Amino acid sequence: MLTQKQKEALRLQGSCTWHDHWFVSIFAGEPRFKQGVLSYYDGRLVTLCGFPLRGEPAIEAAVIRELAEEWASDAEVQSICYVGPQTMRLTRLRGFGFRKVAQQPPIGISSELFLNCNGAPGSVFKKRIYRRSRSLGFKSTIRTGGIASAEHFRLIELFYRKREVSTYLAEIAFALPVLLRSRRVSLIEARKNGALCGFIALHKPFFDVAVGLFMARRQDMPGVCDFLYSAMLDESRELGATSVNVGPSPTVGHYNFKKKWGGEPVIAPYYYVQWARGALAQRTHTSWGPRMIRL
User: Fold this and answer.
1) pLDDT tens, 26-61?
2) Are 273 and 81 a contacting pair, CB within 8 Å?
3) Measuring CA to CA, how many Å separate 37 from each of 6, 68, 156, 271, 274?
4) For the sheet containing 186-192, what is the strand order?
């Protein structure tokens, strides 16, 4: 578990979505912090985050390898994943009975994009896209905690029905009940004539950076995404953030939408590799929830 001192360091210096230990731990397991490396352990699978905290030097490959081998010496650990900005060779894990089961090279759209919401001259609040989004006929409402309404469930199901369920979306599905109930999370809604047209889940885990966690919307409502982004920027500034991390993008279209809103790549594209042994070497599972239902 994290100590209070470690939690405070993450709050003050965190920025990457992997540093958001409250949210990531919902699907990736218990967070731990050692030698400048944040890791998550769900009882069988370990994920090592190679992105350093702000103001800290790059994490050396030797440190990641040392931690991976330390985890590998635990017989309960069946899989070790690394995600970070650099290619990572973990071939010495073969000596512990592991083999490489998955690898993904970094691609541009996996950069985490940040939106500026500091309100300074030249910021997105002064741009035409922001002004236009506020004149689309939607009304914004903000709610926190205790939300489990039929209209939210219906919108979420429609969202998933329209998409091929990736591992990430499966992980989010497990986290959604927490997001809907937690008072840490602001649900920013777009309504028209009282009906829910879309919502964004947002929270502020870091000193000056808010994080957009999830967005669902009706397909038949043009402009609702733009409206939700403008409302998200407003709420982030109210929360004291100077920027919003809107995360990596699953498609070029998502990436271009974020760029349209002034998104800048702040966190480098991901390199991902997974090594496994035993039962987890037979199928590639990246987290506890999808693994539990054999997705």
Assistant:
1) 999 999 999 999 999 999 999 999 999 999 999 999
2) yes
3) 11, 11, 34, 16, 17
4) 139-144, 186-192, 195-203, 209-217, 243-245, 112-116, 264-267
Instruction: Please state, in angstroms and rounded to a whole number, the distance separating the CA atoms of residues 206 and 9.
Output: 9
Q: Three-class SS of residue 195? A: strand
- Note the helical H segments in the chain: 4-13, 21-28, 61-72, 128-133, 150-161, 167-181, 224-238, 252-260, 288-292
Asked whether residue 121 carries a pLDDT value surpassing 90, the answer given is no
Task: For residue 10, give both structure tokens.
Answer: 């993450």
Q: Which two tokens stand for residue 260?
A: 């349209």
User: How far is the C-alpha of 29 from the C-alpha of 279, rounded, in Å?
Assistant: 19
What structural domains does the chain harbor?
A: 4-106+270-292 (no CATH), 110-267 (3.40.630.30)
The better pLDDT of the pair 35, 166 is held by: 35
- The DSSP-derived string for 98-113 is -EEEEEE---GGGSEE
